[in-house]
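Hi L.,

As promised, Endonuclease/exonuclease/phosphatase domain-containing protein:
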Amino acid sequence: MANLNIVTLNVRGLNSPTKRALTLHELHKLRADEAFLQETHLKADSTITIRNRHYPTGYFNSYTDAKSRGVAILTGAQTPYTHTYQYTDPN
């Protein structure tokens, strides 16, 4: 049976390109297969992405247009993964 390394971080905002890069570097150092980030503080309509070659797949959720709250789930490039369904809450 293979191990799955899961990391969760309260990032307290990822609007800075430097902070995004440092966070992705830290996740890679920790050998995270799945990363759960909370308090990303990205706007719902933001075009900012939190991805790189080590974490090419990410799902993001933000609260309205305010720079508050927000979560992200990143999947490592070496993690076997199949997307089968996506649901977006209309509220």
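The chain has a mean pLDDT of 86.

Thanks again for sending the construct details.

K.
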